[in-house]
Structure formats: structure tokens, C-alpha cells
Write a structure and sequence with these properties.
Length: 454
């Protein structure tokens, strides 16, 4: 059994869904997980913002446009009876969305709980279309409601699945379908609490659903079908000539995902590791390309760096002890503040009297700064970027640090950190310096004259 997860661009229109049908047709005992059609989650969140602003006209106009787009893609189902059933199902989803948006626009307020109810529409609708399309093309499929199988806590917008409940629910719903030769189709990203309240797993969370489903069923492989040829040596939106990485270890993949390689949601690898299931990243527009295989085995290339992740939107918080030296208990108090405000800290460096940390999520920054200011001097700096070089080979390459630092010579470094795993080195720089710095690093480690390990 193989889990095949298709991202937004891989279901974005009729042609994309026809490619999906072919891929699924060539897969042994497939279980299908799909994202919302490309761009739909952003549109839904836009609609929620319009409702919150009380702009009912804009919000309902955009719901109407989304409904029409889905109706258009539903034309992939040629059979008139199946198509009518599908259109009725889609209309039920969008009628419900209309009702929610109308009510919230009157209130002029959208809580995280309702944001999730709105955002979930994308995957609920796309999975209905894909299930009907597979059936119409001769591969009998059944729609599985993600809200009945992915059981989560109530941390809306980034809900955490409850493993044993979820695993049991997936097996109960999916195994009988597989035994009957039916293809199960599940919307990614979406879940529900044990009381049935809709939740989502956070942006990009469909990959995570794919991995959870694969682990619950003991899949032989989890395939992530997307719009690039695999994990690339750097973000193709910043670097013009990245190469495909044919093989990654689980550890490398999770560090790359965590530090910004958007092709994989950061939580994806963990369920796969738990059951030692290989993950493959593949291009739905070029199914014959070999893609990237991610397994427990250490990276076999002879380079120090396997790939470089990067992200912008990084903020550094500098916290200086008001005493001469950091006192006992200072770090505990400091991290308690971030924990209290549910804000994840990515990179940490310390000196004699100060600690610097990076955060992605600025929403609670004012409250965090206020709380830290009770026992420290605090400053923060936004508009930064982070670059993280990852490779199992870093730990044994004596020339690595020199190569890294010479490549970014002249770029002011805000922070530098090497993890104890010695599998990654992270630098924090001004966002404006990212394109140049990443290009130079990519050249250094993957360019024509890049040396292999010293
Ligand atoms: P999907 O909708 O299929 O989940 P995403 O947009 O979430 O696709 O992820 C794929 C995108 O990730 C690529 O189009 C690419 O722009 C971006 N990306 C960033 N870093 C990398 C990387 N190192 N390798 C591959 N893709 C990357
Ligand atoms: N549709 C969701 C998003 O855009 C989840 C996903 O595509 O993985 O974030
Ligand atoms: Mg994605």
C-alpha cells in the first residue's frame, strides 16, 4: 500500500487532475491525500479577513468565485450522473461556507476556531472532486471525511493529532475500502477535535496528513507529489540553477523542512521515522523524473552539504541580563516567557550576559517583550533571514566552516549557530542580503568548482 499525496498545483485544474488519475492508476493499492486547489487556502483566509472586517459583499463575492472555480474543475467528471452528485456535494460545502461567512461578517469578528472551519473548505471540496474523478475514470474511489479520521487537540490553526485515536480511526475507515479494492481519498490539512469541531494542522499541513495516514496503515512508501523535481539543493525561487538531491536521510529532510524548505511540511517526517517508511518527493508534471528518496540511511553523497534551506520573515530577540552576569535561573525564566506565549524559538545563541533567539511568529511579540522586560533588557530586530546548510557530511568535513564563512565574507552576520548534531549550521542575516548570500553559498557548495569533502 502506498500513500500518494498531491499538493495544490497537482490538483489545480482539470489537466492536473487528469495527470493525478494516471499516476494513481499506476500505483499499487493507493491511498490518496489531496490539498486544496492551488491558491484556494489563501483565498479562503482572505474571505475570513473580509468577514472580520464586516465586508459582506466582498466576502460573498469571493465565495461565489470559489464555488464557480470548483464547478469548473468538476467538469473533469464527464459522466452526467456522477457529475450532478459531485456538484450537489460541492454546493453543500459552499452553502455552509456562505452561512458561516455571513454570520461572521455580521459579528465583524473571526476566531481561530471559525478560521479553521473556513480554511477546511478547500480540502473538503478538492477531495470530493478527486474521489468523483477517479470513480468516473474507472478507479472506484470513496471519499473519506478527514474530520472523522484525523483526531486532534483544539489548538486551532496548528492542531496536533492525537496519535492513537487517529491511527485507530484511519484503520477503521480505510482498511475495509482497501480490502474491497476501492481507492480511499482524504482531504489533507483538516482534522477535528474528539467533539467534532473542525481544526487544521497549520499551513502546508497536507504533507503531514499524508505521513500520518501512511504511518497508521503501515504503508510501504509515502509519496509527496508536487511541482518541482524533488528536494532541491536550495529554494528555486531564490537560486536559478539548483540541483535535485536524489537521496536524503530522515534527519537531513526534517532539518531542511524545519528551516524553510517549503516542499515538505516540517512535521511530515516524524510519523514516517516512527515506522521507518520511505518518503519520496515527486513532480506530478514530470512523473518520470526520479525525485528525492528520504530514508533512515545516512546520506551517501560525498559532499559536506546536502542542501541549503532558507526563510525570510525572521525576527531576532536579544535579551540581556540586567545583572552583570547571567544568573542562575535566568534561562529558565526567559524560555518560560516564550512557552507561556506559545511562541516557538528556532535558533539560540548566548554570550556572557545576553541571549539571542529567533522567532517566526511575531503575533505575541509585544507581550513577550513586555514580560521579558520585567527581568532583562530586551530589543528585537525584524526583517531578517535565516540560511541553514544541512548535511550528514558536515560533521566530518574539516574545511566546512572555512568554506561557509568565506562564501559569506562581507555579509554582516547577526547570529551563527551549529547544532550539537553537527548536521547543520545556521546563519541569520538581513533579509535584503539573502539572495546574494544564498547564491554565493550555493556556488561554494554546489557550483561547478565546488569541491567534495576535505
Ligand atoms: P505543494 O502545493 O505541492 O505542497 P508547496 O508550494 O508547498 O507545494 O512546495 C513546493 C515548493 O517549495 C516549490 O515550488 C518550491 O518553490 C518551494 N521550495 C522551497 N525550497 C525548496 C527546496 N529546497 N526544494 C524544493 N522546493 C523548494
Ligand atoms: N491547503 C493548505 C495550505 O495551503 C495545506 C496544504 O496545501 O498542504 O496551507
Ligand atoms: Mg506544501
Amino acid at each position: 500500500m502506498i500513500v500518494v499525496k498531491f499538493g495544490g498545483t497537482s490538483v489545480k485544474d482539470r489537466a492536473a487532475i487528469e495527470r493525478l488519475i494516471e499516476i494513481v492508476g499506476r500505483t499499487d493499492a493507493p491511498v490518496v491525500v489531496v490539498s486544496a486547489l492551488a491558491g484556494v487556502t489563501d483565498r479562503l483566509l482572505g474571505i475570513a479577513a473580509e468577514a472580520a472586517a464586516g465586508d459582506i459583499d466582498a466576502a460573498s463575492g469571493n465565495v461565489r468565485a470559489l464555488r464557480l472555480r470548483h464547478h469548473g474543475v468538476a467538469s473533469v467528471v464527464i459522466d452526467p450522473v456522477l457529475r450532478l452528485t459531485l456538484l450537489a456535494e460541492l454546493d453543500r460545502e459552499f452553502d455552509e461556507l456562505d452561512r458561516i461567512v455571513g454570520a461572521l461578517a455580521v459579528l465583524g469578528e473571526v476566531s481561530p476556531r471559525w478560521l479553521d472551519a473556513i480554511a477546511a473548505t478547500g480540502e473538503l471540496a478538492s477531495s470530493r472532486i478527486v474521489a468523483a474523478a477517479l470513480t468516473a475514470h474507472g478507479q472506484t474511489a470513496a471519499w473519506v471525511d478527514a474530520r472523522t479520521v484525523i483526531v486532534t487537540n483544539d489548538e486551532f490553526m496548528s492542531a496536533a493529532p492525537i496519535a492513537d485515536r487517529t491511527n485507530a480511526a484511519i484503520r477503521t475507515a480505510v482498511e475495509p475500502l482497501l480490502a474491497a479494492g476501492v481507492v480511499p481519498v482524504i482531504g489533507g490539512f483538516v482534522g477535528a477535535t474528539d467533539r467534532g469541531v473542525t481544526t487544521t494542522l497549520g499551513r502546508g499541513g497536507s504533507d503531514f496528513t499524508g505521513a500520518i495516514v501512511g504511518a497508521a496503515l503501515g504503508a510501504s512508501e509515502i509519496q509527496i507529489w508536487t511541482d518541482v523535481d524533488g528536494m532541491l539543493t536550495a529554494d528555486p525561487r531564490v537560486i536559478s540553477d539548483p540541483h535535485v538531491v536524489p537521496h536524503l536521510s530522515f534527519e537531513e529532510a526534517s532539518e531542511l523542512a524545519y528551516f524553510g524548505a517549503k516542499v515538505l511540511h516540517p512535521a511530515t517526517i516524524q510519523p514516517a521515522v516512527a515506522r521507518d517508511i520511505p518518503v519520496r518527493i515527486l513532480n506530478s508534471q514530470r512523473p518520470s523524473a526520479q525525485g528525492t528518496l528520504i530514508t533512515a540511511t545516512r546520506s551517501s553523497n560525498n559532499r559536506a552539504v546536502t542542501a541549503i534551506a532558507s526563510k525570510t520573515g525572521v525576527t531576532v530577540v536579544n535579551i540581556t541580563s540586567t545583572r552583570m552576569l547571567m544568573t542562575h535561573g535566568f534561562l529558565r525564566r526567559l524560555f518560560e516567557v516564550f512557552e507561556r506565549h506559545k511562541t516557538v524559538v528556532d535558533v539560540v545563541t548566548t554570550s556572557e550576559v545576553s541571549v539571542s533567539v529567533t522567532v517566526d511568529d511575531r503575533r505575541r511579540l509585544p507581550a513577550i517583550v513586555a514580560d521579558l522586560s520585567e527581568f532583562a533588557e530586551v530589543s528585537s530586530e525584524g526583517d531578517l533571514a535565516l540560511i541553514c546548510a544541512v548535511g550528514d557530511g558536515i560533521m566530518t568535513d574539516r574545511a566546512f566552516a572555512g568554506h561557509l564563512l568565506s562564501a559569506v565574507d562581507g555579509v554582516p552576520l547577526r547570529m551563527v549557530s551549529q547544532a550539537a548534531s553537527r548536521r547543520n549550521v545556521t546563519i541569520v542575516i538581513a533579509a535584503a542580503d539573502l539572495p546574494a548570500a544564498l547564491n554565493r553559498l550555493h556556488d561554494q557548495f554546489f557550483g561547478e568548482h565546488a569541491g567534495v569533502k576535505a
